[in-house]
Amino acid sequence: MSVEPFAPPGVTWSRLSPRLVTVRRAISGVVTGVLAVGLLVAGVLVSPWFHAGAGLVLLSGAWEWWLIGRQVPAWGYAERDDDLLVLHGLLFRTLVVVPYGRMQYVDVKAGPVERRFGIATLQLHTASASTDAVIPGLPPEEAARLRDRLAGRGEARLAGL
């Protein structure tokens, strides 16, 4: 009998907002564009060899564009009775199990770009840094709901000690 370590039985995964793909691609596109333009200008002013660097930057940016579209759908989270599961990664899969009783606090944050696109990031902090978990790309309402629910479950588990 084969047991898949990244697919616990009976778990229904919640996925991230597809707007996270847009945000990450926009940031990547701006950085790639600025670097490429800088290298093109250097190619005109200094040496044509900088044009090759601009080509590499554009090629790298295209690869990152494709990769972002694959990475975001690979994220998932699931609430269970005693813990929260966070799954991410394509090549190197990671499944973090955060017991509610080990949570110290829960942060919700959103930078200006995230707020513009209507997403937020939820971060769980535990007694052990290795079990901290991050869930990016949540709609703000879902991030607030999850924050309140997880904080309540964490308090209930700690009260039972």
Automatic annotation (TrEMBL):
- Report the residue ranges that make up the YdbS-like PH domain in this protein: 74-150
Q: Name one Pfam family in it.
A: bPH_2
User: Which ranges does the record mark as transmembrane?
Assistant: 23-43
Q: Which InterPro entries match?
A: YdbS-like_PH
Q: Does the keyword Hydrolase apply?
A: no
User: Which keywords annotate this record?
Assistant: Membrane, Transmembrane, Transmembrane helix
- Tell me where on the tree of life, at the top rank, the source sits: Bacteria
Q: Does Transmembrane count among this protein's keywords?
A: yes
PANTHER family from the UniProt entry: TRANSMEMBRANE PROTEIN-RELATED, UPF0699 TRANSMEMBRANE PROTEIN YDBS
The name this protein goes by in its record? YdbS-like PH domain-containing protein
| Species this chain originates from | Kineococcus xinjiangensis
